[in-house]
Amino acid sequence: MYLSMSHDTADHDKLAYRLTRILCKLNQGERLEPQALAAEFAVHVRTIQRDLKERFAFLPLQKAGEKYFLDAAYLGKLSLRDLGRFAALAGVRGLFPSLSDDFLRDILDSRLQSALLIRGHNYEDLGERQGDFRRLEEAILEHRCIGFGYQKGESIKTYAGVQPYKLVNHSGIWYLAARDGARLKSYTFSKMESLQVGGDTFTSDPAVHATLAQEDSVWLSERKTEVLLKVAREAAGYFRRRKLVAGQVIEKELEGGGLLVSCRVAHANEILPIVRYWIPSVRIVSPEGLQVQMERQMQKYLISSPSLAQS
Predict the structure, then answer these.
(1) How many domains does the chain contain in total?
(2) pTM for the full model?
(3) The domain that contains 268 carries what CATH number?
(4) Which of 66, 132, 198, 310 has the most CB atoms at less than 10 Å from its CB?
């Protein structure tokens, strides 16, 4: 279908580019000030205000002072395809009166649920922690050091001078990726309390961002152990279809249909639960001590559960 537009193609392209860039910024958790956006895109501030209030009326935008930002529950959940589609819809909504705010909001919600929610998991409800979440987000954007208490078993450990880098949602749970001294760590957001955002700032390290971009687990460490797994034929198809362990690489196809699979882990708990789940189809080849550790844990469990041992 061909549509005749009153503005030329160049103007429309500029509009789509501006909307997409603003959506990208919102999606990444940035807090946007209309005056700064107007200077960046060389348009009047009223144009930016129209973008935020009218064209993006379907988004759950929040406002604090002069800055606009996306509701924390939606951060990082828009794909590049989503961003382009929403920009296009918002840019030509005047041509299609049926594209109401409710319709666009429904598109946003259904797209997020179908594309990003993992079966068997739900995104945790931040509830009364929304305020702390936004303060933490702001500390990340402004490179401010933080302090907090952290639940470890029955005790609370106090941290100070921690450098926050990114909030990560893994399997529905929010984690803070941060540097404590020289070590890169992850903290479960729900276990953090008494959050304090200090006045001290830090210089963001590009190497940390590069590490986080490559990570596909919440176990953060620059020092990792390479683990080699032997996967039997009956489970091999699952490992071929998708990565079941962090950083999974299929090293070799074995005779009979099995696989040798490698991965790099920062902690034993990153791999042992997965191997236990796939017993007897998966075994740790190296390091050998890791397989022994798992077998001892299982023996201890069976001894403590006589009914299971007898069966």
Answers:
(1) 3
(2) 0.46
(3) 3.30.70
(4) 132
Q: What are phi and psi of 91, to 5 degrees?
A: -70, -30
Q: Output b/e per residue, 238-256; b: 16+ Cβ within 10 A.
A: ebeeeebbbbbeeeeeeee
The pLDDT assigned to 227 comes to 92
Classify residue 4: in a domain, yes or no.
Answer: no
In angstroms, rounded to a whole number, what is the distance separating the alpha carbons of residues 179 and 163? 5
For residue 205, which of 233, 178, 229 has the smallest C-alpha distance?
Answer: 178
Cβ atoms of 281 and 256 closer than 8 Å: no
pLDDT given at position 169:
72
Could you tell me if 290 and 273 are in contact, meaning their C-beta atoms sit under 8 angstroms apart?
Answer: no
Please, what are the averages of pLDDT over each run of 10 residues along the chain (311 residues)?
38 71 83 92 91 80 89 66 60 48 51 35 64 85 92 90 85 82 87 92 86 67 82 92 82 93 83 89 91 88 65 50
Residue 121 maps to a domain: no
